[in-house]
Amino acid sequence: MTDVEENVPLKDPGDAESGPCKPETSGPTRQDMSSPKNHPFSRCASYVLSVTGLIDTVNDVSKLSKEIGMNHDFHMEEKVLPPSSLEGRVKETMHNAFWDHLEEQLLATPPDFSCALELLKEIKEILLSLLLPRQNRLRSEIEEGLDMNLLRQEAEHGALNVPRLSKYILNMMTLLCAPIRDEAVQKLENITDPVRLLRGIFQVLGLMKMDMVNYTIQSLQPQLQEHSIQCERAKFQELLNKQPSLLDHTTKWLTRAAADLSTPPPSCPDSPDSSSVVCPSPSEAANSPEPLNPKMVLSQGFLNLLLWDPEDEEFPETLLMDRAQLQELGAQLRQLTILASVLLVASSFSGSVLFGSPQLVDKLKRITKALMEELKSRPEEEAMLTVSEQVSQEIHQSLQNMGLAALSSDNTASLMGELQNITKKENCVHSVIGQRIHLFLKCCLVLGVQRSLLDLPGGLTLLEAELAELGQKFVNLTHHNQQVFGPFYMGILKTLIPPAQALETEVGSL
């Protein structure tokens, strides 16, 4: 069984003074987590064990509370270090040294139970931390079953029964664990070696602690979301009171978005006309041109941010905290545009029979994704040349394997030429696919991700999973931002939209 740990920092160097009998569990203890030096995830892992404690400590708009508020599916995951990494090797060496030391103590004559007592004390603390406030009977049972004063007396007389205590702990874990951990706990019951059993108990307890953290985070998500919204809005209002020009860039951003809505996207010659690049019914609402309304202006504004020039310093003040995440989403958008374009061009040369194979599609996606990473470190022309070569070779091999006619030399050259030019913005395929992905994201903002997936524009069906992930991240970010800054946006939009076009959308619906 591999060791796992939560996303927490290394222990303070001062902990080394406590001696070798302090085990490294898969998560911090209450005392460790209370340290202000620890990572925000550590503080969260501590305070989620107390509902009121968590709410009281989120006194500022921290990155963690904002992430929890934005992402309804937020959860913490165990961190498994690669065995080949330096940190992984160091951790494994330290763990093995501790458990070897424990084994030596238990096999000594007479047995030395000092480390075993430290383990039992920490196990008791973990079990108690997993209890809900109303579980008073179980709390009393654990306090009595793992009475440390009594266990120390037994250890002093050489009568500490480690196997019996381990069995008691396993029974308690069976009562407290989530159903997903039942199998892991049952496997521990088959271990007879006391040291291996204690080590396994610690590993599973670490997972159980994380389950409790995630359960409490989900329970508190609505309160955290509202708290984050109110705090972020109040802090921005405080800054705005001191600096009235703080919304200048935001006003320019929304002004540009309103102008874009009345300007149709350029159509590409030799490509489907603009009428083919529309959101199919029932998504027509996402493309409504006139009259202007606040929701559509904001949607267009958020879409523009995905293509924002990194050198442009006039970034909206209300989105400065989200700029890094928006740039990351913009990079994902560009990758998906290139990937969808590659697949569309490849399918036009290889035919529907070949692209009806999910295995081929997945392989081409993996090849293209891997090679696109080289765009960050290699000239674009070189990277796309490699993409064109690999994709053409894969199509040629697949046609042979299926007994179909191979591509002619002319078709192969034409395929490679089109693939090499895909990253250029003036490329027709790139332009059309980019418009369609933008349209999908606009539909996500207006109708939601799941409904938008039902009406994917042509050429995007092979990337449904990737688009769903991008769309959900984008919706989460924009939804939270609108909830925070909705009142400020409405004040600006009232000056941009003519009075004749009544503002039927209230702040709460932004």
Automatic annotation (TrEMBL):
Name of the molecule in the record: T-complex 11
Ranges of compositional bias, category Low complexity: 270-290
| Organism of provenance | Sousa chinensis (Indo-pacific humpbacked dolphin)
Biological process (GO) annotations held by this record are: protein kinase A signaling; regulation of sperm capacitation
Task: Please indicate which superkingdom the organism of origin belongs to.
Answer: Eukaryota
Coiled-coil spans in chain: none
Task: Provide the family line.
Answer: Belongs to the TCP11 family.
Stretch list, region Disordered: 1-38, 260-292
Per the record, where are the segments of Polar residues compositional bias? 26-37
Instruction: Report one GO cellular component.
Output: acrosomal vesicle
